[in-house]
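Hi Y.,

Following your request, here is the sequence exactly as I used it, all 248 residues.
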Amino acid sequence: MEQANVVLITQARTGSTRLPGKVLMEIDHEPLLIIHLNRIRKAHRVDKVIVATTDNTADKIIWDISEQNNFYCFAGSENDVLDRFYQSVKNERPTWVVRVTSDCPLIDPDLIDAVISCALVNDVDYCSTGIIENFPDGQDVEVFKFSALERAWKEASLLSEREHVTPYIRNSKNGFTCLDFPCSADYSKVRMTVDEQVDFKVIEQLILALGKDASWLDYTKYLLNSSISDLNAGIIRNEGYLTSLKKD
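Below is the corresponding structure, written out as tokens. Let me know if you'd prefer a different format.
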């Protein structure tokens, strides 16, 4: 099998409605963004990482932090995130694109590699941990062909499709081949993403207990055997996407 050209894009901004500046919040003197990026850096199948931020003045700090830590950064549209993704990678024209989000600081690099391998072996347009949502919220990895991204960029028109990058590709009506990356059990009630202050407290406790380099499954088992997860148990998964659908 030929070595694929794989570019990972993580979206990052300071302007969160529920928790402004969340990716800059620090644990052990390190911003969540850097914890996130340093974990991504360990993914062996990723050839390049791009931090896709917005062209708002407030997000200049995302650019600065990324470059200071030797990550390439691109600034584009705040609301048309599909355009931001496409513009950030159109000159590279890689075979494969990986999408993660920076509010998932404990994203697992081995899981990223596994989803990439699954997409390549099966030669599908789209493969992710989220078609059937059995992985914990916060371990969301999407891998898709650049050709699928380019077609979505040209054709997608709904707000939800532009703001959340991949709904147009995932929609079975549009003819893309999609594959779920299976999870060994249903961990959908486990939450390790950061949308609210209580989410941050959960991540902080996880890192204090297990450090910054544990696997997603070790973090998951710790949460399942701890009362810490009660802090954010009531938060709705993918609330931002649901809000966009209502606006459609």
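The chain has a mean pLDDT of 93.

Thanks again,
Q.
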